[in-house]
Amino acid sequence: MIDSAHMVLMVATVLFALGLVGVLTRKNVVFMLISVEIMLNAAGLAFVAAGSKWQQPDGQVMFLFILAMAAAEVSIGLALVLQIYHQHKTLDVDRLKELRD
Amino acid sequence: MTHLQFLALLPFLILATAAIVVILLIAFKQSHTVIQITGFVMMCGVVLAMWYVRDTLPREVPPLLVVDGFAALFTGLIIFSVLVVGLLSYIYFEEREENPKEYYILLFLATLGSAVLTISRHFVSLFIGLELLSVSLYALIAYLRNRNNAVEAGMKYLVLAALSSAFLLFGMALIYMETGSMEFTAIGRALETSGSSVLFLMGIGLIVVAIGFKLALVPFHLWAADVYQGAPAPVTAFIATVSKIGVFAVLIRFAQAVHLQQNTLAVTVFTVLAIACMLTGNILALMQQNIKRLLAYSSIAHFGYLLVAFLSGDAGVGPTVFYLLAYSITLLSAFGIITLLSTTRRDADDLSGYRGLFWRSPLMAAIFTIALFSLAGIPLTAGFPAKFFILTAGVQQNMWLLAVVLVLSSVIGLYYYLRIISTLFAAPPLTSVKERTLHPFFYAATYTSLVVLMCLLAWLGVFPGFIVDQVQAFLQF
Amino acid sequence: MHQLLPYIPAFPILGFLVLSLFGRKLSKPVIATIGAGTVCLSALITIILGFSFLQTEPPGGVYDQLLWSWFSVGNLSVDIDLRVDALTLVFIFIITFVGALIHIYSAFFMWHDGDYARFFASMNLFVCSMLLLVMADNLVLMYLGWEGVGLCSYLLIGFWYEVPSNCRAANKAFLITRIGDTALLIGLFLLFKEVGTLNISGILHQAPDQFATGSSNIVLITILLLAGGMGKSAQLPLQTWLPDAMAGPSPVSALIHAATMVTAGVYLIARMHVLFQLSPVTMVIIAIIGALTLFVAGCSALAQTDIKRILAYSTISQIGYMFLALGVGAWSAAIFHFFTHAFFKALLFLAAGVVIEALHHEHNIFMMGGLRKRMPVVFITFLAGAAALSALPLVSAGFFSKDAILWYSFSAANGNPLLWLMALAGAFITALYTTRLMLVVFWGETRTPVHRQPGQGMVIPLVVLAFLSVTAGFIEWPHNMLHLTLFSAHVQKVLPETLLKTTLPSESLFQLIAALVTLAGVFLGYILYYGKPGIRWQQSPALAGIREFLFGGWKFDQLYNFLFVKPFVFITRINKSDVIDKMYNGIAQAGLRLNSWFSVSQNGSLRLYIVGVLAGILFIITLQLLL
Amino acid sequence: MILVWMIVVLLAGGVLCWLVAQRNQLICRWIALIAVVTAFSIPLGWYLRFKPVVTAGNNWLIDYQANWIPAYGISFHLAMDGLSFVLILLTFLLGTLAVLCSWNEIRERTGFYFFNLLWTLAGIAGVFVAMDLFLFYFFWEVMLVPMYFLIAIYGDFNRRYAAYKFFLFTQTGGLLMLLSILAMYFIHGQQSGNYSFDYFTLLNTTLNDTAARWIMLGFLIAFVIKLPMVPLHNWLPDAHSEAPTAGSLILAGLLLKTGAYGIIRFVLPMFPQASAGIGWLAMLLGVIGIVYGALLAFAQTDLKRLIAYTSVSHMGFVLLGVFAFREIALQGVVMQLLTHGISTGALFVMAGMLKERLHTRDIDQMGGMWTAMPHMGAIGMLFVMASLGLPFLGNFVAEFLVLISTFDVSPVLTVIASVGLVLSALYSLRIMQKVFLGQLQTVTQPPADLSAREWVIVAALTVAIVFLGLYPQPVIDMVGGVVTGIVRS
User: Fold this and answer.
1) If contacts are CB pairs under 8 Å, which of residues 574-613 in chain C contact chain A?
2) What is the CATH number that goes with domain A4-92?
3) How far is CA C10 from CA B107, B444, C36, D393, in A?
4) pTM for this model (two decimals)
């Protein structure tokens, strides 16, 4: 019987995988961002689990950092999203192909 | 936190204040020039502080940071690069329509992040530094939102970077799960006691992914070309030098802590990556007509070379530093030329724009040529001893496969460098180059700094001995 | 005395230098004086030298003068060192004396030519190299002269270089002789490997103890040397260049392609006689080659219509006689024939030159005719030469030399009736075509008017040579009639005696046969060519094929063209743009293709990039799980 | 020390030329000329002053050493022995002529041109005297880059392609050599604990056979690419035919020689067994080169390309002679280096003169030049004869020595090589016939004969080649010590 930490880790892994699939499959930039958020949170969850395993606060500390970072990231992300919509009148990533060989 | 530790962190604190100072200046509606100069002074302050605290080194700041000669070297490298980037930025942004001021905040924040990476000995500090770096980079890349697809570049970088940091975090989590610590050294120790489990290895793998992404190692390199092309020239220079230097520093530190080079698995992985980088980078660049993209590809190849030094363990640190130094000087002078030639409308990144540059403005062409020769590793330029030392390190560890691949791929590389050079020297087109109105002082300053860079390249190429000794001395403590 | 040696070649080379450097600035008289004068001087020195040699024989029968050490590495040391012994003396006498006459002749003959200086420069250079060839005391120096004469022959055949055919002839001559030369060079290498020196006297001394008679090495060496000789002396199968070489001015043909250079092969073999004696096989080969050549060339001469080509073929065949003599071991006879031949063949060429000059550069004998009355002097001299060529008994030098060869080809130790018969046939043919030449050119009615009579300067050499080609033979009489052996006695200081078979029929019988055969040849020629019938015979369709065959010199040219020239040209043409280059271009192409493939991945699609990252991860993870 | 000066003068002169050129091109030309002549006079004057005699014991005439990158045991070590000396003389002789013959040919961008010219010469001179392997590699590259510019900027129509090809080929070899140098460095270091790139230190390194073979190959490939050896010769025809006259002169006269020099100086002494092991193969390739080059030369219609292939053929003799490991052969090789430098150089100079006058390199469009330019015709004849190895011209001595001593190593190969002599006659006479003989074709007024400046050039070359042909002994004595030393090892 595996301990709870590893259970949570599995959950986190599943979340992470889901996020990844989301990033891969969604064409809309916003949804991609959301999926990335999911992945980040999955990582955070994993940290919490680890922290609980070792009975340390570090895991949760790390989680806070992650949240902050995610927030910053998303804010810039959304700013860019606005710009993109402003310029391309779409949020479809497959239209963003100006830069290429 | 003792006084000494505080002292040791002084340079980084100054770096941090630089950003704040800029914010204040902006608040007081100071002009671009003022900001520029202040930033310059602050950076010099950082260097001075570094010099001032040098004999208190090395100094641990547990649990997160350690300031030692290694860190000092890399930070110095970073600051040096930022100085030049800042100078270029002025020229570049001076007569752009956008307001360039906030740019400097981001610049210094990113620098801080990269500097923090060099002194981090803990996952948290690693994470903070990395994110500081990348978050400010998102903004920097997309800073000129209406010019050559900056936004697209920024978006691509953002999504991929966020992705990679997700991987990084997850990897960290796994390792933390296994070892119960987030200090590199502790991890190393835990590893020796309780061998490496699957989870741990996966953790390492995921971290490698993140690092590889930042260093644009194959196969995580796909963003590089687009971002290089989309970002403003100075920012591109920044990405190519500062961010990569920082990341490479932390990679080395981490590897030393957990003895990555003893782990056959990691060695195999990095060997494959190195070979892939060297070949892919050079082959991609072969027919590239856009100089910024071409430099992106060549930088991929160059980090492939660096991995060879990295793989040769502690013997490779010295060569790595030298190589990074030569490499950043070279790239900065190259991007300096690009910046100088860029117009208000678009960056001068099309090779055809460089036809016969030598006969129009010999100095620029000479600088550019020497930079390219240095990238190609031709003697009389810094690139040659750099590549030579790396080869030395590689051969010393009997990594013949890597050595041979390095040689062959650099022959391939030679072709496209020669292609650019022969364009520079080709018969000039009839169209005359446009005149630009610039603050003469900065114009002169930029020119002189570029000339200085060129001289540095030549000097390093002919007498590398001095620097080599210095580096060794620094790495001692 | 030996201090004089260097001057003999020195004067001509001096003339060459002066003429080639300042030739264009000098006036024609000056050029002529320098050109002819230098050779006359060396002729003078030679004669002085000769007298002193004949009076008081130098120690060892050799004048020797070391100039300087050319190069010496390890055990190979080569000097620039001149040496003159009895054999060499004969050659340098001919070279300088006949050379001087020809130079005087040319001074007038070439008067109207634009490139006067270049002509004399080349001629002087030739004389010098020829002298070095025969005076060299080591084979490398001899090779220097050997190549030098080749060069001059090239320069002079192609003297009128505006005409492409002349250049072709020059190239042909140079290349074919070059083939022989290369064989000779390889011979030298082998000699050096075996004997350890290239010094002629050294080789001649060591050879007997070095090689067992008939051992494979010596045979190989001699064959290689022989090949060199065949190239220069235009013997089968390397004879094809000589007829074309007639493209050069007549004096050139007289000096180079009759009197001196073409006999270099004879000299080489005579000089290295010790080696050749050690290899009987080669001796037989030489004899056979000589016999064949004299016959083949003689037949070709029958069908020629160009006066100079006739003489060229006759030269080939006469040298064939010399080779035959050498082959059967009649060394002195061979040299003696060289001696007389030099006079009368030079004479014939010079006279022919006058004729051609007189008839507006008409070469075809059938366009000449009836010159007997209009150019008496030339007629007389030509007659003397012709007599000598066809060896009319007793009244011509040719008789004494050729008769000796005929006799020895039968009687010498390794002589043989077959060879004798060949030689006899050759004598017959010679007489025949000589008569033909005489009759067609000098008898019959006029076909081309004479527009210029030869000047005194051209006549004098003719007369001198004519006199010599009648009288030169008298210094050597057969044994059975007043046994006089001045010449053979002289050369046999160097060359061995001719060994005879033990039992022999009387020599007189052979002389009688020879004389009769010659006369028969003359008589047949008279029948065929005296007046009209000869012409008709010349055009009779029945014989067209054979005539064509002989006219083309037995079609050797076509044969070689088909065997060597065409394939060579073909090979070089198809590979003009270096196949190996294709390989490297292929590599380059591959690189570019790779580039295009790789850049597909950079298609700007964010999702693809993510996939790339994922691929990376999967790769790393799998790697980890595998290991 | 004079060695350093020799090089410094050239480097400084080059920079000076570049700077002055904007003001006045004539001065720039003169500076270049003076620089080369000074550099020439330095070793010459030294020789005349000290009259050094090469004793079998110690061949080293001059030796200069200074620290460079002590951390890696790299020193700035120059030394000169007989071999280096003769090659240095050749370098500066041809260098002077190169400056002279680009006097009028180069009309714009003069400064940069002479800068490159002088730096190439400096690099070559350095290669001949560098006794530290790192330094050697350094100079090896230094001579490439300016040469690349000479071809890529001042060359003919197809110059870029030629320049790439030249640079890539040589660079590949160079980097392989670099690997080998490093391997030597570490193997020796691990053996003796003394990490150094010094030639004399590395000389007494003991290698096991496999290591020796691989390292030797690294060196050898670099050198035979330069030489060039078939099938690595393809850079040569393009580079030679596209380069400006002086470029071709230096390429054919000097750069090829560095390859041979490298083999003699490094490959043979450092890896005696290993090189003996592949001796027969190298000789075979040399012979193939002789024949193959001659065949290609015969086929060409582009004059400079033709001459280029002749040097492929001639360099075959070098390879053949070097790997015969005989004293005489090596002497012949050295002689061949000098004479080929002079004769082929002269031919290229003439091709350049013809091109200046006729604006074509196609021999089918020439002909009858003798009528127009009798002097050039005579000189042309002389050097054509030299290239087909006529005695009393230097090339004969060289080829004779090589062949006579390879003969007792391998008669068969020697015989094939001698066939090369016949072929050489073929293509040489073809040059003569196509260019100088025949009817004068040019419809315009006939081109002018040699000018005074050109007279100086060809006169110098003529004197040199004839002297070497009639009295080569001084050279032979000069290099004698070196050669015997190599043969003994």
Assistant:
1) 599, 602-607, 610-611
2) 1.10.287.3510
3) 88, 74, 14, 18
4) 0.90
